[in-house]
């Protein structure tokens, strides 16, 4: 299992608050708990050449994890296009938190992917609504995060193939926080939590969900499809 | 449009609190705001012969509304079977609040239809998550109910065809509060609100959702299907 | 109901075979049977200024019908973007036949939208698999087309919200021929039949499906959604 | 992985044609190719006490396979109820061919589960329409069966959670031949092929699909859910 973790990696370098929580970047924190699972981990960040996503890196990636926020517009269109094609060809994709507004997610969804938000450090409860889904393996019936950014409905995405988690926030909003989509031969999991100013990725159940998501998103050896002019 | 409103009609006769809110029964309150829409309304209740659901009544019903709670087990199996067949043959069905645990709903769903609940008079917010659905016509992006019974996930139903509303409760729980299912040629809408001790069915937006639901559930003149041994 | 019919309108001008079937263009044939329904019809074609899709035309369109084939790449990106935004804002969209490969459909879907095809004039049967859907109103349980182009699975689209028709072809292929999607506040119906060298749009049941599709796709007065930084 | 194969086991004892193809019963043929996978196999048949489905057998079953046809009505209601509860509690379930009309499937679905059929020994092609699904691992883009019973739409089931295969038959009918459903914590896979008078279960790709289906249907260690009166 080859996992590549892509991180914008700007907040951690520019904000003391964020740097205290994720001193080596969000990607390294995620790498640490995925390595425990025995996965082969690479990382890639925005400011590297080709954003760290060379053809070779992508060719050797079974599942890509994406965290981005304030610099979505700095991601090169050509790289977005290349990553999107790899997803359609079968690379798994996990999008975390503000990656909902990445070029990559918006192009795969075809919608605005907009939502409500509020930075108010309020309690989030993530409730399991699909308790037979492999992504819920080993977790309790809800996950409590003491402080998170609020994301609220309406979340402007296509009807998900599966809804696994629905969140409530202390302010009363709700959100489809764990949703899956199939696009081409690629499996996509969007998972809401992980604002940079809270230690969300140190939470054991959040880590478990991400580990489960990576395993779920990896492609099987499914049929080669022929397209175009066709005679059996 | 012929609408039949079925009500268990026990709480209103046995509890002063409920009788004050719905002096003529929940069915009559619902009848009043549906008549404004120009629908032809009949009512039927548990303690009538055949629970008021004779073959003639059912044959003249385009959409059936169902409210039941503590006497689900008193509904005759033969009546449940008859109503279920009418739904499969194309009669629309709206199930309100505790009708989630009716024999009728459980047999149409095939699951336990169980959930969490708490009678604590707490605030419910119903958020629209499908803002292109005809059932949301004319309502705001969320409906606020000051006091309601809490229903919480996991709600043990099959994956709905559509999720229109998701609720949050003051205590932090969430619930898929407006969900649709197609079964046979029948269209089914489950809508959560309406505990008997709160004046929920006087709320203008709740009334609007129920009116919209009735219109949505009515069958069109869709194809006659042939089953069995077949040669074109 | 304001309906705009967009047609590439090239085959009809360049091929005698096509011109014989659709002497005034496919759009005029479709316009004729939609006018019988009392809809207000406009048409627009590729070679007009802005492809006939000015801001004013789009603002006055409830439902847009799209037929394109060999000149998908000549449709300006800026027009595609404008039409896509109108769909997300609530304009209904019907895509016919080879419109599966239009820029518009591909950007709304986020996938390749590829498929198998064969021009062999073979029999197509379109079977209703959702006999409670309003788009099937007034049609039989299958529609037979004596001669059509074959389209075969795998059709590389996201999981549709609804599958209404599945086709078989004389050669043995199958295809999800009538599928719906919600994107933003827009309702989308893709309907497979209509190769330019066959008189498909004169078939009474095909016309009925398109009329039903237009009615289904028109937006209701559904909730205004607020996005962005939010405090209730 | 503990797999129990339930077979009606009547045709094989009463028909010479069937006995020639499956001399030890369909269940033994299925057992043979599942044992190659390293699964622990038990079998159970209608004419055994409790139809071979004692509490102990069910408690030790991760995935149950069901083949029945002409004696659906002889299956005891109490056994059906017990098996249904085990599915809702997380036991995987594969239903093969005419098991679409078993009491078990009908009660889990809530619909008639009716369809068109024709015993005419005609060619079936099963096309993959979900090429990212683990059940399609290792198979080609379509499976050809030289002779099978025809099953045709409309298949009166709830909207499946996933459609994996769609069949065409030589006569022109289509069928959703591989469909999945989640019910409670149980995962259900209905797979169409396998009429008793054809050697379908000796086909390598059919065997592969059933093996994949068993692996997919096995429950993970997903959350324990609490239902009823609830205070966090």
From TrEMBL, chains A, B, C, D:
Gene3D superfamilies: 3.40.50.880. Residues 2-217 form the ThuA-like domain. This is Trehalose utilization protein ThuA. The lineage of its organism: Bacteria, Bacillati, Bacillota, Bacilli, Bacillales.
């Amino acid at each position: 299992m080859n996992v590549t973790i892509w991180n914008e990696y700007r907040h951690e370098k520019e904000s003391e608050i964020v740097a205290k929580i994720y001193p080596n970047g969000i990607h390294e924190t995620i790498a640490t708990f995925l390595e425990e699972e025995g996965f082969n981990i690479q990382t890639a960040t925005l400011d590297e050449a080709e954003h760290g996503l060379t053809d070779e890196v992508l060719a050797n990636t079974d599942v890509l994890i994406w965290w981005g926020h304030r610099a979505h517009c700095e991601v090169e269109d050509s790289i977005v296009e290349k990553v999107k094609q790899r997803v359609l060809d079968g690379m798994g994709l996990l999008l975390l938190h503000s990656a909902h507004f990445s070029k990559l997610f918006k192009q795969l969804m075809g919608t605005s992917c907009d939502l409500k938000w509020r930075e108010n450090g309020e309690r989030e409860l993530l409730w399991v609504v699909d308790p037979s889904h492999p992504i819920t393996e080993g977790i309790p019936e809800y996950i409590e995060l003491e402080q998170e950014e609020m994301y609220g409905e309406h979340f402007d995405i296509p009807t998900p193939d599966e809804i696994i988690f629905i969140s409530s926030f202390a302010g009363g909003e709700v959100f489809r926080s764990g949703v899956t989509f199939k696009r081409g031969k690629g499996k996509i999991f969007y998972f809401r939590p992980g604002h940079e100013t809270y230690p969300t990725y140190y939470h054991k159940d959040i880590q478990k969900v991400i580990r489960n998501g990576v395993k779920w998103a990896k492609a099987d050896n499914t049929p080669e499809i022929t397209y175009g002019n066709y005679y059996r």
